[in-house]
Amino acid sequence: MTADIASLQNRPVIIGGGMAGLMTALALAPEPVVVLSKAPLGLEASSAWAQGGLAASLGPDDSPALHAADTITAGDGLCDAQVVARITDAASQAIETLARLGVGFDRKPDGSLSLGLEAAHSRNRIVHALGDGTGREIMRALVAAVGKTPSITVMAGFEARRLLVEDNAIRGVLAADPSGAVTLATTRVVIATGGIGGLFLDSTNPQGCFGQGLALAARAGARLADLEFIQFHPTAFDGPARPMPLVSEAVRGEGAHLIDETGRRFMADQPGAELAPRDVVARAVWRHLGRCHRVFLDARQRPGADFARRFPAITAFCRDAGIDPAVDPIPIRPAEHYHMGGIAVDGAGQTSVGGLWALGEASSTGLHGANRLASNSLTEAAVTASWVAESVAATAGRPLPPPRPVALPPPPDPSAVRPILSRGIGVLRDRQSLEAALRALLPLASSSGPAGDPAAVGLMMAVAALGREESRGGHYRTDFPQTDMVARRSMLTLDQAFAAAWDHKPSARRFA
Ligand SMILES: Cc1cc2nc3c(=O)[nH]c(=O)nc-3n(C[C@H](O)[C@H](O)[C@H](O)COP(=O)(O)OP(=O)(O)OC[C@H]3O[C@@H](n4cnc5c(N)ncnc54)[C@H](O)[C@@H]3O)c2cc1C
Fold this sequence. Notes:
Blueprint: E1 13-15, H1 19-28, E2 33-37, E3 54-55, H2 64-74, H3 81-100, E4 115-116, E5 126-127, H4 134-147, E6 152-156, E7 159-166, E8 169-177, E9 180-185, E10 189-191, H5 212-219, E11 224-225, E12 230-237, H6 249-253, E13 257-260, H7 278-290, E14 295-298, H8 307-310, H9 312-320, E15 330-339, E16 342-344, E17 356-358, E18 363-364, H10 376-394, H11 418-424, H12 431-446, H13 452-467, E19 491-492, H14 494-504
Parallel strand pairs: 1-2, 1-10, 2-6, 10-17, 16-18
Antiparallel strand pairs: 3-5, 4-5, 7-8, 8-9, 11-16, 11-19, 12-15, 13-14, 14-15
Flavin-adenine dinucleotide is lined by residues 15-21, 36-39, 44-47, 49-54, 134-135, 159-160, 192-195, 204-205, 208-209, 212-213, 246, 338, 360-362, 375-378, 381.
């Protein structure tokens, strides 16, 4: 940190130093802003781990309308068509912005962008960098650009613990680093804290991504949307490492098959087989594991001997675990990968609390609906950063008397919540599993201990999942396998979630 706290008062505060947060800070320049990041920039952020890339209709056979149509198909009836149109229209401009900021995208010999294909995209439209190192390259360039922008003050190592709110309007942020608490007085806060994978035992996300922004917003009274929609990646590497390394969909795209320990290709007779949509494959693998099988990705025939050249990063972590993908089947299992739900925002990224914006994976814009189309999340973060920056800049900051002090909550710890959510709100859910999760979460969420915030987020997810008595996209209820004719988004505040949880299980009151 380069400035003392007193000089930073009344600036917009951006919580989160991933792609969403840094692009917002850069788009706000030269307006002075503060970026709070609990980890050093570039670390503990999903953005740096993205392998595939960003979706944008740049090919001669492509158009924003085709990209929008694919997004809406994947979203299973729940996308906001207006938001989809705005984001797919603006995607190519966002790629230009990133290139201008110094991101070295992979290009063809003629200098044009090299466009990859991913599952459920009808055209080649995935812009990537360093092969499967897109996120690393984006974060390198953004961190360098932030370092050259004097209007941005980065407070690395500071964790936001509470938003200070009076009369449903932001008055400040309470944050802490190992040396103690600091209060930043401000009337403008942007939440860009990423996903929720750290709330699950099995996830591909950095473990520090456990929905802290959702808890901050929920405790401030904000509405959250579509929390029940979680994308589980079907092929995370089933070894001891947590978070779980991803075995990219591209491996199945190159012809690898899913087999069990007997060598049986158990998805062969399903529509699309191993290349069926991500949620379909995740459920098939989950069910097979539930029948006491083990599941492997068999790449021995295809890509076979070419595997190490095509997938050097996957080869490296497989070899660390003593597996050579050209010779051995790769053990896999589904893992939490992406949260479609989040803090409900309007077309400018504004939440239901005055002076509070959200973007990136922590937000719910309506782009993804019930299921995210691969590589649409980085695109969403890049595009919406300019919307949020414009809206924040147009909202005058007001110097006000210091906000009322509140006690610093303890550092949040999701470890007690992980087994509960993993059992209760996983790939397959039903009333019984969700009610059991509610019973376990309610006392934790009502406490002021380290599990309080993670449990409050989990409670809201479980209430939303219990309320959705249908199956759609990433939300599958074994007791309600049908998809309703009419799709509706779900909206919830923390107070509503507590009320619903008490109603469901009045006996849980005795734990409070
Ligand atoms: C392995 C993997 C591969 C992926 N591949 C792709 C892909 O190819 N294409 C694609 O579009 N998407 C991909 N995704 C998803 C995508 O990477 C994320 O959705 C996106 O990067 C989220 O960006 P973000 O800025 O919102 O959050 P993040 O990049 O996760 O950043 C969150 C930031 O918030 C900080 N933070 C959190 N809580 C606090 C707090 N309380 N106080 C202060 N700071 C806090 C964190 O330290 C971090 O800096 C992938 C995800 C993973 C895990």
